[in-house]
Design a protein that fits this description.
12% of the residues lie in helices and 44% in strands. By secondary structure, the chain is mainly beta.
Amino acid sequence: MTTELLERRLETLALAVPDAGRVTARVLSSRPRPQVRRWPRVALSGVATVLLFAGTLYFVPVADLAIAKVPAASELLQQAGLVGAGDRIRWVDAVSTSSGLQLRLVGAYADSTRTVLIMHAEPAIATLGMDPYLTDQFGRLYRPESGYSNALTGDVVVQFKGLEWPAGLTGARVTLHTDSLELPDTSVVTGEWTLTATVTVDEERDLPLPASATTGRIHYQFTHVAYTPATVVVDMLVSGVTAGDLDRRIPDGGKGTAVFSIALLDPDGKELTGSYGWGGEGDVVPVHLVGFRVGGGGNYTLRVSYIGEGSFERVLSIP
């Protein structure tokens, strides 16, 4: 049965899914996320029920999910942006060894905004190589968006985009594939490493859109604001400047000062770690921010600034 046919069959299925739970930094890219599609809940015929139940253990991995409680250093969770995820992280202990290098999948977390894998390599590596990718049980492929590795400890974190429909309902069996690993000395080892984990997907919850803002010649229009147990997500359109303008840095004798900055502060006024990026051409630029939560609800402050054009703040109230 093809993936397309399977998904059409699954659209008729109603399921009850359990609630889930710097030494080296490599940032590859960041892009706006697609909205998660919702399935209609429709009654099943007797025949369809039997046929679909036979595939439940493979296509609905949360139906038979075991969690191995593996301790993880708090520093590693901070690097992964998973301090706020709590017990929603799925602790695994999968190992793949090739060409004398061992890659161990320690934990995995997924929500509507991203999928994060926590790994350990022996000996330590710098990156997962030239072309790593993630697949789900429906055969879809996901490329890495960012990653972090510690050349002293061998700890590795890789972030992919959020899993696509229908994984948000069924849960996902994800498999990491890579045929090369880059070492800290930049040499590359080839082989075959494959690691699998089963995860539930935390759905994001929308927040009211903040009022738009204009500072100088720049206009900011919010299009999507939401949160998950581990993240705060903000999407907006910026007009009056180009993506090249947002990239500009003012020389300061070092790396330069970015003219455009965006920060998210928690209820205690501490700036969250996370990532943001923009893209596209023309004078309307989509900007996407993901802030990593470390606490609960409250009033989070979004601060946006463009040197020479002014700044503004907006409050995001998370229950």
